[in-house]
Amino acid sequence: MAKAQEVKRNWYVVDATNIPLGRLASKIAVILMGKNKPTYTPHVDCGDNVIVINASKVKLTGDAEHKKNYYNVSEYNGGLRTRSSGVMLREFPVEMIERAVWGMLPKGRLGRSISKKLFVYADEKHEQEAQKPVVLDLSK
Description:
alpha/beta; 29% helix; two-stranded antiparallel sheet; single chain; four-stranded parallel sheet
């Protein structure tokens, strides 16, 4: 069993260019939860930090660009906002990847702490150069 104080966290950079959104999100979720490590413990946050660059170049397969919708509700009458995947990819690519990864993480206190280790950027620049992240190729 891993203990929270003994977990060593690595930093990884993932380039999202031409990778399908669902495959990218599932692989990132595995790394964030630490399921790729032999010391994985379900009730401990033992995953690594992930930086996603080029979020605006992620690939949507099939007819997802027109058929898939993202919803937000403001709790007021008529407060439902609907955006298609095409709009999300053009205007809010960071939020789109964060939502896809969040859907694959456990819900609750542990899932919220795990999701804070994800950093998504729409272009190639990121602010975590000081952590010396390792480039991780997920296109396979």
